[in-house]
Design goal:
The chain is an alpha+beta fold and 343 residues long. 16% of the residues lie in helices and 45% in strands. Among the domains are: 52-143 and 197-255, outer membrane lipoprotein receptor (LolB), chain A, CATH 2.50.20; 261-340, 2-Layer Sandwich (TolA/TonB C-terminal domain).
Length: 343
C-alpha cells in the first residue's frame, strides 16, 4: 500500500537566492554550505544506521510473520483490530487488516499487487496506521530537508541523540537511543498550523534475527487522533503454507513498486484557486491516482463542514497528480490530502 506524507494545497514556496560578488560575502556562504553538507552527511549516517537496525523488510532479510493488536482512537470513539503481515521478500508478501467496519488484504507478487477491501476508499486512521508502520520500518532523509542541528537530550533517564530537520515550514525531530541507536521517537510539525503535530513513539525493543524491533508503537496527532500497536508475534518462518501468497478472489490488480520515483507537480483543475473559502474548514480527502496521474476515485474521509463536501470533491476530480514510476513503468497509488487553515 503506497502512502504519502501530507500534501498541502497552499501554493508553491520559492526561495530566491541573491549573491553579492565579493570575496567578503562569498567566503561565509561557502562555509555555511560546507557546514550544512557536513551536518547532512552526519544525519544521513545516523538515520541510516537506525533504519538498518529496525528494517526487518530489507532485501535479504529472513521471512517472517508479524501479528499485532491495534487500538484506533478518534476523539471519544475507539475501535480494536488486527494488523498482520506474512513477508517473504520485498515483492512477495501478504498484509491483512481486520476491523469492525473495515477489512483489507494486500498481496504482492513480483510487479503485481492484488487488493481486496470492504470499502472502495481508505479510512483516515487506517491510512495513518499504514504510514506509521512504514516510518518505523524505513525512515529516510528527504533530499530537500535541511539539517538544523544534531543534539543530545536526557529523556526519562535515557541519553538520546536527536536530529532536528527543517523543510519549508515543516519541522521534524528524530530521536535515537545514544547507546543502542534504537529509534525512540519521531515528531513532525507545521510551523503555521498548531493542530498539525504528529508524534510517534517506539518502545519495548526485542531481538529479531540480526535486528531489533519495537513491540509497542504509538501515534498521537491532529488534536484527537491516536493509534496504539502492540506486536503480539514476530517470528521467523522456514516455509509458508502453499496458499499463503495466492491472491484472494475478486481482488483488484495493479502494478506494484516498493520505492517508486515521483515526477511532476500537482496541477489543479481550475488554475489553483479552490472555489470554496477554507479559512474555517478542515477537510481530509482520499484520492486513488491512476498511473497517468489522473484521479480515479475520490472521497471525503473527514470534514468539519459536510455541506461543502460535494463542491470541493467535484473541484478536485479534475486535479492531475504527480506520476510515480518504477524503472520507467508508471504505477498507480493512493494518497490522503489534508486541507484547511488548521492543516
Amino acid at each position: 500500500m503506497a502512502t504519502e506524507r501530507e500534501l498541502r494545497f497552499c501554493g508553491h514556496y520559492h526561495i530566491a537566492c541573491f549573491f553579492l560578488i565579493t570575496l567578503f560575502c562569498v567566503t561565509p556562504v561557502v562555509q555555511a554550505a560546507a557546514n550544512e553538507d557536513e551536518r547532512k552527511s552526519q544525519a544521513e549516517a545516523i538515520l541510516s544506521k537506525a533504519s538498518e537496525m529496525v528494517n526487518i523488510k530489507a532485501p535479504g532479510s529472513a521471512p517472517f510473520v508479524l501479528i499485532a493488536k491495534v487500538h484506533l482512537q478518534e476523539g471519544r470513539k475507539s475501535v480494536e483490530g488486527i494488523y498482520a503481515v506474512s513477508w517473504a521478500a520485498p515483492d512477495r508478501f501478504r498484509r491483512v487488516l481486520r476491523f469492525p467496519n473495515f477489512s483489507s488484504t494486500d498481496l504482492a507478487q513480483g510487479d503485481k499487487l492484488y487488493r481486496q477491501r470492504s470499502t472502495e476508499g481508505l479510512p483516515l486512521l487506517i491510512w495513518q496506521l499504514d504510514k506509521m508502520m512504514d516510518l518505523v520500518i524505513h525512515y529516510e532523509l528527504d533530499p530537500k530537508t535541511k539539517v538544523k542541528r544534531i543534539q543530545r537530550e536526557q529523556v526519562n533517564g535515557v541519553d538520546e541523540t536527536c536530529v532536528v530537520l527543517e523543510r519549508v515550514d515543516l519541522s521534524s525531530k528524530v530521536c535515537l537511543d545514544s547507546a543502542t541507536n534504537e529509534p525512540l521517537s519521531i515528531d513532525e510539525k507545521l510551523e503555521d498550523a498548531e493542530p498539525f503535530h504528529e508524534h510517534y513513539e517506539l518502545r519495548d525493543y526485542g531481538p529479531f534475527e540480526s535486528r531489533r524491533f519495537p513491540r509497542k508503537i504509538s501515534f498521537r496527532g491532529w488534536g484527537s487522533q491516536g493509534i496504539e500497536v502492540q506486536v503480539e508475534k514476530l517470528i521467523r518462518v522456514q516455509a509458508f503454507a502453499q496458499d499463503e501468497f495466492i491472491a484472494p478472489k475478486g481482488a483488484q490488480v495493479s502494478n506494484f513498486c516498493e520505492h517508486p520515483e515521483t515526477t511532476g507537480d500537482v496541477k489543479p483543475s481550475t488554475g489553483g484557486t479552490i472555489p470554496v473559502d477554507l479559512q474555517d474548514i478542515e477537510i481530509d480527502m482520499y484520492f486513488e491516482v491512476s498511473p497517468i496521474g489522473a484521479v480515479r476515485f475520490a472521497e471525503v474521509v473527514y470534514s468539519s463542514a459536510p455541506l461543502k463536501n460535494n463542491e470541493i470533491l467535484n473541484w478536485f476530480m479534475g486535479t492531475h497528480f504527480p506520476i510515480r514510476s518504477c524503472a520507467g513503468k508508471p504505477v498507480g497509488y493512493e494518497i490522503i490530502v489534508r486541507l484547511g487553515s488548521a492543516h
